[in-house]
Write a structure and sequence with these properties.
The chain has 31 helices and 19 strands. By secondary structure, it is of the alpha+beta class.
Length: 784
């Protein structure tokens, strides 16, 4: 009865601490904004929210990026991910914050029960749950939400997959399928891969420790893994099936460049030291006076901001390995494999995996370190439980490890720059407290000392809460002054943000706008970069493909743009803007002028000036000239010629003809339905500045019509003389059948949870002693 009450009280306390942790965004009027939040996640969530609230419950096409791209099939929009629906709440900012924070509740409580299922007590499980979830690994992922969402489900997946391995319970199977299906709905491939790698490694570990019938056990575990993966994909079919169909049509169908994309975010090999000492590398400087960590990474910042989950868990993780209890080899092997993958290009392995095709479409090797951090945090919690259970050998190792940590921390305190001395002094005090607690426990064993370590960990990781993910008032998301430069009819035109391409590739004088830590975020906001203009309803053309999901024609068109830009021909951008319905182009203002105008008040600076195009180019128009071209290079060559092409020229990859004149009479445009009334004087070509895709269907006067590619990245319809009604609709035929499959699977899971009984873990594997070390009672007998 006492144990059951602990399993009620402890999760409640964890939830209370988590709520306090994020009270400033849940109840204090603050909002996350750093890194991808402002320019990527907010716009996409707002697009989905607006479309669903307008009655389009399954939005399938987004006109806001890349002149139009698939929406529901792209898992980055998370249309089918249930927690995403929180953004539909009346207060968008509260719904968005709750959407983020709810995954911390999921991860923390799931991790608590996972550690408890390994036989640990509630104190150790609480320490592991709080340290990992509220520490650096999870807090860092607020800036990259798909990783956060995917990692949050991992503890629950491990919990029920392991239970299924041990109990063969149908109830555990359906719950494991449900939680792994929710992870699959996010479709973050690296986290999914390492999740199942760890599951397979654990299965292999159990097989190696079987004394008889190893072949039978191995076969059953292999079948179980295959069944679980298949079941999770069925649960997530509504996202997985359209996504797999979408990939061949997008840039994901081609391998990513190894050096520029795949290997770019390889973790520096020494970063694991960060789990012992927070901000270690930020406080070390190279000869140029730069923090060591910024000098090591290509862009001056890490992908995962921090791996620090509290020195208590880090010390106990090391002590558990040094004590070499049963399972230490497994934990060390898993962490080592994930570490080698995470350091990426620092070893030949990543290149080998890339060459054989495994890593051709994956990015950010540093993600693999997150799985290692989770395993390390769990092992640290189990080690604390061994100590609380009376394991004297592990206690001695913990004391020795703390002393070693203490000595190195003292050296950091002595040698640190004066700016960092207070920080390392506080870190040094943490070591003093840990040693005092361990020595006190050795003399007066009592669980209260474990509770003291939990409190210490909460205060230990508290500094990460705002330093990694600062928050800001909601006024930050109000339209910046630059939006006053645009025409009010936002749905009739697009914006070509040349300034972003200049900053990203040419690195002109614009860098000064983004060097200052505070000024960077105001400059991005006031410049509508990178995608936050879509948050306010502005549509982009020829924009950067941040998540590498644009359709292939768009990618080709963007590459042609870059080739034209490099040619540096005066007015090179105007033909592309005419083809793309772009009314505005962006250029950086000189920083000195803006600094003088605003007295360097970042909130008021307008780094970018949006200049109108030569004319307001329409989205739907009749071509006044048609030219044949043969591939992207020929397209660029023709546009680079001495004569400026007509703004209504159309390039096609077939025999040209002399088009007749035509007039677009009316346009009724919705995101997935376009109705055009037009008058043509003869054989003509109606150009539609919308990205072509196989699921666009066209009709002319209610008869099916052929849609042909025009200008590489757009489409057109040939019309005869007369008045016509042209209708285009976008519908993905795979979504509805996939949705039905997922709904049936979810209903089956719910029924299974009700019908199938709960099966307790076998008595011989429930105690942590069975997987970590010998029982403390036996140790005490040997001691006597």
């Amino acid at each position: 009865m006492l144990t059951r009450w602990r399993d009620v009280i402890a999760p409640i306390l964890i939830a209370i601490v988590t709520t306090i942790w994020f009270g400033h965004v849940l109840f204090g009027g603050q909002a996350f904004y750093a890194r991808d939040m402002l320019g990527y996640h907010y716009p996409m969530k707002k697009i989905v929210r607006d479309r669903m609230l307008s009655g389009d419950l399954i939005p399938q096409w987004s006109p806001w990026f890349g002149s139009g791209q698939p929406l529901a099939a792209n898992p980055a929009y998370e249309v089918f991910y249930p927690p995403q629906w929180l953004v539909l709440l009346p207060d968008f900012y509260f719904g968005m914050s709750l959407h983020v924070v709810i995954h911390f509740y999921i991860c923390a409580i799931g991790l608590y029960f996972l550690i408890r299922s390994l036989g640990a007590g509630s104190i150790a499980a609480t320490l592991g749950a709080i340290g990992f979830t509220l520490g650096g690994p999870m807090i860092s992922l607020i800036r990259t939400l798909p990783l956060l969402f995917s990692l949050a489900w991992v503890p629950l997946i491990f919990l029920f997959v392991r239970r299924f391995f041990l109990t063969r319970s149908k109830r555990d199977f359906v719950l494991a399928a449900l939680f792994s299906g929710l992870q699959a709905l996010v479709a973050e491939p690296t986290t999914m891969i390492q999740t199942w790698l760890i599951v397979i490694a654990y299965g292999a570990y159990r097989v190696l420790h079987e004394r008889k019938d190893r072949g039978l056990v191995a076969r059953n575990l292999a079948i179980g893994v295959v069944m679980l993966v298949a079941a999770s994909l069925i649960v997530a079919a509504v996202q997985v099936v359209p996504m797999l169909d979408f990939i061949p049509d997008s840039v994901r169908s081609e391998p990513f460049p190894f050096k520029e994309v795949v290997a770019w975010w390889s973790m520096t090999p020494s970063r694991p030291l960060e789990i012992y000492y927070p901000l270690l590398f930020q406080s070390l400087y190279n000869q140029a006076g730069l923090p060591w960590i910024s000098a090591t990474y290509h862009l001056g910042e890490t992908f995962v901001a921090s791996f620090y989950f509290g020195c208590v868990l880090a010390i106990f993780f090391t002590a558990g390995i040094l004590a070499w209890r049963k399972g230490s080899g497994f934990v060390l092997a898993v962490c080592a494999v994930l570490y080698i993958l995470s350091i990426g290009a620092n070893t030949p392995l990543l290149r080998i995996l890339y060459d054989i095709g495994i890593f051709k479409s994956m990015r950010y090797p540093e993600k693999f370190a997150l799985g290692a951090a989770l395993v390390a945090a769990i092992w640290g919690a189990l080690t604390l439980d061994r100590i609380l259970a009376g394991d004297r050998r592990t206690l001695r190792m913990a004391i020795f490890t703390t002393l070693g940590w203490f000595v190195f921390g003292f050296l950091l305190l002595v040698t640190a720059f004066s700016f960092w001395k207070l920080f390392w002094l506080i870190t040094f005090v943490r070591g003093v407290i840990i040693i005092a607690v361990l020595l006190a426990f050795r003399r007066w064993p009592h669980p209260a000392w474990g509770a003291a370590l939990i409190v210490l960990t909460i205060f230990d990781v508290a500094h990460l809460r705002l330093s990694i993910n600062p928050t800001i008032g909601k006024s930050y998301f109000e339209p910046p002054p630059v939006t006053q430069e645009f025409a009010p009819a936002k749905d009739q035109y697009r914006v070509f943000h040349i300034a972003e391409w200049d900053w990203k590739y040419s690195m002109p004088h614009a860098d000064v706008y983004f060097i200052n830590p505070t000024g960077r975020w105001w400059s991005l906001r006031n410049s509508l970069m990178p995608r936050n203009g879509a948050y306010r309803g502005y549509q982009y053309a020829i924009d950067s493909d941040y998540d590498q999901t644009f359709l292939t024609p768009t990618a080709e068109f963007i590459l042609a743009m870059r080739l034209l830009k490099e040619a540096n021909r005066p007015g090179w951008e105007e033909p592309l803007m005419a083809m793309s319905n772009a009314w505005y182009k962006a250029y950086f203002r000189p920083f000195a002028d803006e600094a003088q105008r605003t007295n360097t008040r970042w909130e008021e600076m307008m780094p970018v000036q949006f200049t109108p195009a030569r004319e307001r180019y329409p989205r739907y128009y009749f071509a006044d000239a048609i030219e044949e071209f043969n591939g992207r290079d020929d397209f660029v060559t023709k546009l680079s010629g001495t004569a400026s092409p007509s703004p209504r020229v159309a390039f096609i990859e077939s025999a040209p003809f002399q088009p007749a004149k035509g007039t677009v009479v009316t346009v009724d445009e919705q995101p997935e339905r376009i109705r055009i009334e037009a008058q043509s004087e003869g054989r003509s070509l109606l150009v539609i500045s919308m990205t072509p895709h196989k699921y666009w269907r066209a009709s002319v006067n209610a008869a099916a019509a052929e849609v042909r590619p025009v200008n590489i990245g757009y489409q057109g319809i040939e019309l005869p003389a007369g008045r016509h009604v042209i209708e285009l609709t976008y519908r993905n035929p795979l979504i509805l059948p996939s949705l039905i499959v997922s709904l049936i699977a979810v209903i089956g899971v719910i029924v299974g949870c009700v019908v199938f009984p709960h099966v307790p873990l076998p008595a011989d594997v429930t105690p942590v002693a069975a997987e970590v070390g010998g029982a403390p009672q036996k140790q005490r007998r040997r001691k006597r």
